[in-house]
Write a structure and sequence with these properties.
The chain folds into two domains: 215 residues, 3-Layer(aba) Sandwich (D-Maltodextrin-Binding Protein, domain 2), CATH 3.40.190; 204 residues, D-Maltodextrin-Binding Protein, domain 2. It is 40% helix and 11% strand. The chain is built from 21 helices and 13 strands. Helix 5 packs antiparallel against helix 16 and helix 15 crosses helix 16. The longest helix is centred in the C-terminal third of the chain and has 18 residues. The relative contact order is 0.20.
Amino acid sequence: MRSRLDVRGRGGASRRSVAARVGALSVGALALTGAAAYGTAGASPAASKSLRPAVSKASGTSCKKGAVKLTMWGWAAGYNLAVDEFNKTHSDVCVVLENDGATTAEYTKIQDAEKAGSGAPDVAEIEYFVLPSFEITHTLANLVPYGVNAYRKNEVAVAWSQVSQGSGVYAMPVDVGPLAFYYNSTMLAKYGISVPKTWAQYATDAATLKKDDPGAYLGTLDWADSQPVLAMMQQYGAFPFKWNGGSKLTISFTGKSETAFANFWQKLIGSGEANSTVDFSPAQWTAWDSGTDASRFSPAWGPVGMQLSIKNTIGSWRAAPMPTTSSGTVQSGNWGGSTIAVLASSKHPKQAAEFAEWFGGTAASWKILSGPIAGAYPGYKPVLDSNSFLSTTLPISKSQHFQGVFAQAAKHMVSPEWPPIMNYVNTIWPTAFAGVANGSESLPAAFKTMQNDLVKYAKAQGFNVSL
């Protein structure tokens, strides 16, 4: 991404001004277009991270007499433990956690409940990228009147920026997914390859490895999965969207930086120097564990799950900063992360906000969330900066204190300006990029397809689109 941390809230129009300026935009068209398709190709990182089991049953169902009862929808592992801790320590509020499906399955049910005028939860787990789709349809409560800004100092800037819109804050950040270059140190040493500091060096090293071992690749990227590709574009300084809460939306898959990104990777793909295994598939784990793929553009939550899926190369993997577009800079992208949002329809917004703020912004909650069951990567700085967290080791990386690399990455991300059409993006993405992995279409051509389709769609929804 860019060479320094650039913290910009998605300022501009307030949430209420959106309705006046983009009145033609409907809940169905914006909030959850393409929900059914997202669960297959655009697999949500929050749902799939580390492939851990999600919450499977309601938690907090035994409420104290007289307590205000709140319903929360969420799916991530370990959230039930945090809910139980909240209920133990708050006698006047009781949260009942229900799993109504992960990601878009949940989002669709929220949409349906809002349309019906009943049945929606008070609080919901919502990923960063989909927040604008709910913000623009007035589904989420502004947490500022309930004191949320008191927690800002303890959250990483990229997380806070993604939950803010103008002067409003529409969710409490929880975890983040900064990228690092996670590599097989044994394999790189075998071929005399040093950790690439720039993308130019990465390309040279990829060619060297391919020459020395025609069956090996320096890295892999699943082009049919929107989230890692957009994280990589973000890291490269080529994120294709800009949106600040109003009717103006920038879509730029064919801009200068985006074209440079596409050309860089197309050269590697065309010369057979980049692999494209499907994310979280058996083939991908095997490629990393067998000496086929030498590295991973890993989100911070990646190593925990990865060590559960490989065995031959345990102990060989190390984390390093991502390669950058120019030497001497630190650039990272973000893949994944969730928030806790309060629905505007809640009859108990004060108590719901109290819970959301406790969940994402207190040491008591993060003691659980950063533990071995939940394994969430903290956007909460008191944990992120703590010696106990930074000194963490895992068998996959032997004695390396790898968390320090990811922690620095978390502080060097420019906040992506997610558009309120992301679920439509995820719907058409797999088809647009299907030919990239199998070699039947170039990456620049796929970018052009995305550009044309998204501009046409966004204009039809009433947006004033710039390129």
